[in-house]
Amino acid sequence: MYFELLNIFNMDKNGLYIWSAYTVVTITLIVFYIISNRKK
Amino acid sequence: MFILKSYLSLAKCYDIAHRISSIISPAIIPCFTLGLVWSLFIAPTDFQQGQAYRIIYLHVPSAILSLNLYFIMGILALGYLIWRIKIFSLLIQCLAKVGIVFSGLALVTGSIWGKPMWGTWWIWDARLTSTLILFFLYLGILALNRSITQSRAKDSACAVLTLIGTVNIPIIHYSVVWWNTLHQGATITQFWAPKIDHAMLKPLIYMLLCYIMYVIVVVSNLLIKAIAERESHTQWLKKRLLEDVF
Fold this sequence. Notes:
The structure holds two protein chains of two kinds.
Chain A (H helix, E strand, L loop, with lengths): L12 H25 L3
Chain B lengths: L1 H6 L2 H33 L13 H28 L2 H33 L7 H22 L3 H15 L2 H11 L19 H33 L4 H11 L1
Helix pairs in contact in B: 2-8, 3-4, 3-6, 3-8, 4-5, 4-6, 4-8, 5-6, 5-7
């Protein structure tokens, strides 16, 4: 397992790219799901 | 044809969408959590790209879905123009919304991946440019849908625009073959000989399945809303809404 990705305080530039991509996607999917599920 | 039309009635589709959404929705969060752990911590590191390759688990499913959703929309548009089945036009409208999200995500995650690998966020490469056109096509369909008030004219116009836009699908798919692009060629679409190791391919396929599950739920939710909006004056819907309350 590759736990160095969890060490956000000692992360190289690639780690930042990975986490920013995962954050963007997760937030977008959650927000879109909430919007799609919202009752009018 | 009459049997098909009665089976695809808005009332029946409303019930089916409700059922699908309620069955699959609870599974989304656990499935995605497993996928994220697998892709971030269990999948091995790439010897060339290092950890940055892990963006593949977000980028590839988004890109595959953005392309295939449009392909489905093209078939639905053709079906609508031939048989005038209302549910097809509503599905086009719902899929366009999902398509915007996934093509947008494919562009953003691709850009984030491109920076460490290519040294640039964006390049006017054939694959990237054709995907950007796809994103604008989705936006255009939705804008057209919002700009016309008369429902029959709206459905026909969106179906025609969708059908015209399908020209872009083979261009996106074969852009890496027809032109010399910075974007890599097909990696996993060659099912019999994938150019990716199985330890990396399995979480990728799993993430793709999670994304498909998510799309099914979101499209069902959007379809429920679209049908409710279109059929708000009908008796059957008022009856269903009352049933939902009690």
